[in-house]
Amino acid sequence: MEDLLTQSTLVQLRVNGKLHELEVMPFTSLLDLLREELHLTGTHMGCMTGHCGACTVMVNGRIAKSCIVLASTLERAEITTIEGLRTADGKLHPVQQAFWDEAGFQCGYCAPGMLMSAVELLKENPNPDDAAIESGIAGTLCRCTGYRSIVRAVKAAAVRMNSPEA
Amino acid sequence: MPADKYVGQSVRTIEGRGPVTGTSKYTNDFAFPGQLYAFIVRSPHASAKIKRVDLSGALKVHGVVCAYDGAQVAEHLNPLTHYIDPGVFGGQSAELRAVAIDEVWCYGQPVAVVVADDRRVARYAASRIQIDYEPISPVLEIEDAIAPDARAVVPGWENNFIMRVPFRNGDPDGAFARADHVVSTTVRIHRFSTQPIETRCYNAVWEHDTESVTLYATAQNPHPMRYVLSQILRMPENKIRVIAPTIGGAFGVKMHGHPEESLICLMAKLTGRPVKWTETREECLLVGAREQRHDVQMAFTADGELIGLRDNFYANTGAPSACPGWGMAFLTGLTMPGPYKVRDIDVTMHAVATNKPAWNAARGYGKEATAIALELALDEAARELGFDPVELRMKNFIQSDQFPYPSPNGLMYDSGDYGGAVQKALAAIDYEGWRARQAEGIRDGKYIGIGIAYELTPEGGALPGTMVSGYDSSSVRIGPDGSVRVLTGVTTPGTGNPTGIAQIVADELGVALETIEVTQGDTTTCPYGFGNYSGRSTIVGGGSAALAAQELRVKVIKVAAALFGVEVEQVELHRGIFSVVGDPARTLTFKEVSYASYTRAYDVASCIMPPLEATATFKPSSIRHTPDENGHINPYPSYSNAAYVAVCEVDVATGKTNLLRFAAAHDCGRVINPVLVEGQACGAVGFGVGGLLFEDIRFDSSGRQLTRGFMDYVMPRCEDIPEIRMVHHDSPNPDTYMGLKGAGEAGVGGSAAAVANAINDALRPLGVALNQLPFSPSRVWGVIQAGTAAKQNIGEAA
Question: Which CATH superfamily is domain B27-136+196-284 in?
Answer without folding.
Answer: Aldehyde oxidase/xanthine dehydrogenase, a/b hammerhead (3.90.1170.50)
